[in-house]
Amino acid sequence: MTLDFPAGPAPAPFFGENRTATLIEDLATKGWAHATGALPGDLVTSLRDRLEVLFEEGELARARIGRGETETRANSIRQTEIAWLTGEHPAERQFLGGTEALRLEINRALFAGLFEFEAHFARYPAGGHYARHLDAFADRPRDRIVSLVAWLNADWQDGDGGELDVWTGPDDHGHPVATLAPRGGDLLLMMSETIPHAVRATAVPRLGLAGWFRVNPGVGGVLDPAA
Ligand SMILES: O=C(O)CCC(=O)C(=O)O
Ligand SMILES: [Fe+2]
């Protein structure tokens, strides 16, 4: 589900210019960028409440992986439940305003031609996980360019599990370059086609959002860090 933002006042960014510039520079040079305490506390709370209501009302659906996978194999790769953001709820709207500001900044800084953003809530049950993967699939036209993950967990403790492992590139099969706790308000950007990542098994329900800045596949934008 993608949204059009009507012309009007610029959407409110999550953070100031310097921090945005640092994040975009990390993204361009390393392929990923991590920001702690990036989302305002009240937004984290209202997004978490929204996800909990969706869960209680049975509005979350089992996330799928590639076409034609058996359920057993899918379970071994990814165990989580999702709901796409529609922008109908005020918290979703505020979040999408922040991602829209970020989209415009990434385009301005990197000439990335990012065209739209789509995102879903994700709830990993105890035992939930997501095996190492890239977010953009080689068998599809180029569309997901930059991934964004934002976590919503209130009081994450060491030992809760659910960390996100990040590697430097598809050929990197060594130790992860970063292992990030999914703390509420923290945010991660990654190049969708090149940064492998995995969610370790979580010991407690784990809440967050995952989204993708996309190019219009007909246009095929290029993110060129050297530009
Ligand atoms: O929840 C996370 O930390 C990452 C989720 C993820 O990699 C995905 O949904 O593609
Ligand atoms: Fe992912």
UniProtKB/TrEMBL annotation:
Keyword field: Dioxygenase, Iron, Metal-binding, Oxidoreductase, Vitamin C
Superkingdom field: Bacteria
Keyword Metal-binding: yes
Obligatory cofactor(s): L-ascorbate
Gene3D superfamilies in alphabetical order: q2cbj1_9rhob like domain
Ranges that cross the membrane: none
Protein name according to UniProt: 2OG-Fe(II) oxygenase
Sequence ranges assigned to domain Fe2OG dioxygenase in this UniProt record: 110-215
InterPro entries: HIF_prolyl_hydroxylases, Oxoglu/Fe-dep_dioxygenase_dom, Pro_4_hyd_alph, Pro_4_hyd_alph_FE2OG_OXY
